[in-house]
């Protein structure tokens, strides 16, 4: 498991998957984008083309770097395309059934040492890992939206996760220019788990007519930078 994660499959090319694919390609990784919808794959490529063009205009990328990054992104509609991946990041819809099915199917596609990372932001990573024949190589990797701009990445271990898998993914996060934090498997992990408390308290304040929605919103934006 200590091989560098050079080829990464991203499953689910919505907004989050597309952002993750861009981050990986710009950091020199080969990206295998997979979505059951061919249109989603085409849209992801267009979005990455547009985003990297903006980066060139802002002098964050050179034209050569942009061209190389785009050449590293390939899209497919078949899960078999993940066979070459060192790491799979799934950002499929937030549903146990969909993610469980994906993890079971990936067992038959990827190599024994390939790490499978679920991008869930609230579901139990342990429960998902238990679907795999090799739960020790399953963990959570939670990016924040928009992935190219947001620095935080939560690396979520279940009780079953091998430390070597965590170390490999943490090293990758640093190589992507992100700030990884190691967290345990509990609802919402760290960032969203804390946010739930804020949101519930805000709802209680509004319900008690203590403050208006606009005032609560202004207090958190101007006072806390949220």
What would you call the structural class? alpha/beta
**Domain module tally:** 2
* CATH topology tier name of the largest domain: Rossmann fold
CATH architecture designation of the largest domain: 3-Layer(aba) Sandwich
Mean pLDDT: 93
Shape: globular
Overall CATH class of the largest domain: Alpha Beta
Main sheet summary: 8 strands, mixed
The CATH homologous superfamily of the largest domain is termed: NAD(P)-binding Rossmann-like Domain
Number of helices: 8
- Taken as a percent bin, the fraction of beta residues is 15-25%
Topology as H/E string? EHEHHEEHEHEEHEHH
- Order of the strands making up the biggest sheet: 3-2-1-4-5-6-7-8
Q: Count the strands?
A: 8
Rg estimate, integer Å? 19 Å
Instruction: Return residue spans where pLDDT drops below 50 for at least 5 consecutive residues.
Output: none
Structural commentary:
The chain has two domains: 178 residues, NAD(P)-binding Rossmann-like Domain (Rossmann fold, 3-Layer(aba) Sandwich), CATH 3.40.50; 34 residues. 44% of the residues lie in helices and 18% in strands. β4, α4 and β5 form a beta-alpha-beta unit. α1 crosses α2. The N and C termini lie far apart (38 Å).
Describe how the helices and strands are arranged.
Layout: E1 7-11, H1 15-26, E2 30-34, H2 38-57, H3 63-71, E3 73-76, E4 87-90, H4 96-107, E5 115-118, H5 125-129, E6 138-143, E7 152-157, H6 163-175, E8 179-184, H7 191-207, H8 213-224
Parallel strand pairs: 1-2, 1-4, 2-3, 4-5, 5-6, 7-8
Antiparallel strand pairs: 6-7
């Amino acid at each position: 498991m200590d091989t560098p994660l050079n080829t990464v499959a991203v499953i689910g090319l919505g907004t989050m998957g597309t952002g993750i694919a861009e981050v990986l390609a710009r950091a020199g990784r080969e990206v295998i984008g997979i979505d059951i919808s061919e249109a989603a794959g085409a849209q992801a490529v267009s979005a990455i083309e547009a985003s990297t063009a903006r980066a060139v205009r802002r002098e964050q990328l050179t034209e050569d770097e942009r061209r190389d990054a785009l050449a590293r992104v390939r899209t497919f509609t078949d899960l078999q395309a993940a066979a070459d991946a060192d790491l799979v990041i799934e950002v499929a819809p937030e549903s146990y059934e969909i993610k469980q099915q994906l993890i079971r199917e990936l067992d038959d596609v990827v190599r024994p040492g390939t790490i499978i990372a679920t991008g869930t932001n609230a579901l139990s990573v342990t429960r998902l890992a238990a679907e795999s024949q090799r739960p020790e190589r399953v963990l959570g990797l939670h990016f924040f939206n928009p992935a190219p701009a947001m620095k935080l990445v939560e690396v979520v271990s279940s009780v079953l996760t091998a430390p070597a898998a965590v170390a490999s993914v943490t090293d990758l996060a640093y190589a992507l220019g992100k700030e990884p934090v190691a967290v345990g498997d509990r609802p919402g992990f760290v960032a969203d788990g804390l946010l739930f408390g804020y949101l519930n308290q805000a709802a209680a304040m509004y319900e008690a007519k203590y403050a208006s929605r606009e005032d609560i919103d202004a207090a958190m934006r101007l006072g806390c930078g949220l």
